[in-house]
């Protein structure tokens, strides 16, 4: 069995300032340290339970921190193969229009998505991408707004809040050791109970409405998450953003 950790930076424990997530800022190295420690804690917990292989996939394709380039944690290669695997969504942020959220965003500033009559963010996209491949989701983590969003989109999965937003740019974090202990405890509890391994398959067809930063809306209808990701990337590029989903679509 293999665990793939799908990770994002903004929702990691200990990342208290949005500015830390800017690669041009000196604090970025500090944020990457927090990222690495969260990933390492989850990896060690999974190995202690007998998971043989741990792979790391950064949700936005950012470079993996060098301290994680070890024999214990391997980069996830895309497309994902058909080996049996489980997944964790670690350090995700809430959707762009979420209230009381730290670093909220959906693919690029000002973009929002409605899916099946519900506001959807990157948590919805990632969980359905995994679900389409039949991969059970064990755990999600992020700020309190992210865990509230999880109640809409991944309600059968344990969600751990590691921080509380005071503003979009600043959060009050749990002490990192306490946050990581909570992640470890939650993961081990879920691993021990197969009935808690939940697969979130997307609706068919996938029908979403995207509100664009410059105004206006576009309806996207897709037969798969891969097709939806290609369509979303086109919208993001057209709006001046950086497409990050196409590399996932090949799987």
TrEMBL record:
The keyword Iron does not apply. Keywords: Aminopeptidase, Hydrolase, Plasmid, Protease. Gene3D superfamilies: Dipeptide transport protein. GO terms for molecular function: aminopeptidase activity. This is D-aminopeptidase, putative. The keyword Protease applies. InterPro entries: DppA_N (IPR027476), Peptidase_M55 (IPR007035), Peptidase_M55_sf (IPR036177). It holds the Pfam family Peptidase_M55.
